[in-house]
Design goal:
- Four copies of one chain form a homotetramer.
- With 137 residues, chain A is α+β, with helices and mostly antiparallel strands.
- Chain A has a single domain, classed as Thiol Ester Dehydrase, Chain A (Roll).
- Helix content of chain A is 23%, strand content 44%.
- Chain A has helices at residues 2-10, 13-18, 49-65, and strands spanning 21-26, 29-35, 72-83, 91-100, 106-115, 121-135.
- In chain A, strands 1-2-4-5-6-3 form a six-stranded antiparallel β-sheet.
- Chains in contact: A-B, A-C, A-D, B-C, B-D, C-D.
- Chains B and D meet through strand 3 of B and strand 3 of D.
Chain lengths: 137, 137, 137, 137
């Protein structure tokens, strides 16, 4: 499962473009981290909301994928993000989780934290959404 | 207003990283386009959901900004995206709009279309969300 | 189709409890109205948000149902509501519509307007959500 | 605080119409219960989604209210509900909570469980949304 998710992640060119890395894969719980580098910011020099969303959505989706057999993958049907605090720090970490597994749809969530130079975390975003299982290409 | 929004857009390093461009600024209606380049895709070679979200969110936010005076900018409070169809084509175009203006919060929406080589459009995503006006830095 | 939807609506005891009425059924577009009676209010004497949601959700769901064959019904998977203005007046009217039909899921929306004694309308809520087709019991 | 919230709840005529009761008030955590009575159902005889939403939204809103001073109340700006399982049983219980307090807006959530005759609970809905503090009438 770890290999399958790493391989899928490696084929997502946007993740490489953003500098994101798959940090942890466990059943129903996947983590993605990304450094707050100069090329992923908004106009005030903070992490862009699109960056926060992208890693949160991917972490949630891969969490759903851990509940499925090898012949399946998932696509996002809909996703909501609440921004909770200014994403300041050196890294963002998104922790995906499964709220409700299912055969037809999987309800997922993700929490995104900003991590400062001392390792202190601040909750900066909450995502909830729906993943749809589909047969692999 | 056009200059103000172009200047803000130019300071969003993520937009340059994604290859996005501000295509149109009108009161309550802003458009952003992005080519479907090899560095912004997901594992199946389609536009990444994070790309679609990023330009939709920015188009919606700038649409809200056109309703405010120069001393104000906006931050996204929450945003929801429905993915409607596979984002195939050569370009994505996000059209932001204001659903309900306000002093304390602005309800916004955006429609994202995929455009093929012949210019035909396909509706690929619908976003709705809340922008909060804040005094400029 | 009109009969099928009226019959389903008549079996929803909550609709009768709220005083709601099916006002119009057309392909992909269903309307539900409810008087702002004393038993459906919140603490300030305005229409309760739960009332607005209930008729918006039902109007959206029945709009989806008009796109399906007789052996199918729909269940709401998720629904989002933006409250846009204070729901003052004598009646609420919810107009459901289909954003994207589909076999596995149907993306829907509804606009709720408050109508005053002169018939003037005010847009008070916007709903967007996902309906899942399921075989009829 | 308990009195203030009970008094506000008692003025919500919809809650009485639905048969809902304020079951618990603690800082940042409010519970509302409602019996699954014959007058609050949908066409298949299950709890209507509007019922589930109504008590979830109110529980979330009152949870936010516990974080504010007496001169303030809250209005719902937007709310999303995910339906997770069929709401079968004898009672629904909604547990509201505060995700992120704030002066301008409060991010809230609620979990709704169906309770059967033996007291066993089943998670049937998850709500996330935004409350806006406003001065009391």
């Amino acid at each position: 499962m770890q290999d399958r998710i790493q391989s899928s992640f490696d084929r997502q060119s946007l993740m490489a473009t953003l500098g994101a890395r798959l940090a942890r894969v466990a059943p129903g719980a996947v983590e993605i981290t990304v450094p707050l580098a100069p090329h992923v910011l908004q106009q005030q020099g903070l992490a862009h909301g699109g960056l926060t969303f992208s890693i949160g959505d991917s972490a949630a989706g891969y969490s759903a994928l851990t509940t499925l057999s090898e012949e399946m993958e998932v696509v996002t049907s809909e996703m909501k993000i609440h921004y909770l605090a200014a994403p300041k720090g050196v890294t963002l970490i998104a922790r995906g989780r499964v709220v409700k597994p299912g055969r037809r749809l999987i309800v997922v969530a993700a929490d995104v934290h900003a991590v400062d130079a001392e390792g202190a975390e601040r909750h900066v975003a909450l995502l909830t959404g729906t993943m749809i299982p589909v047969p692999t290409g």
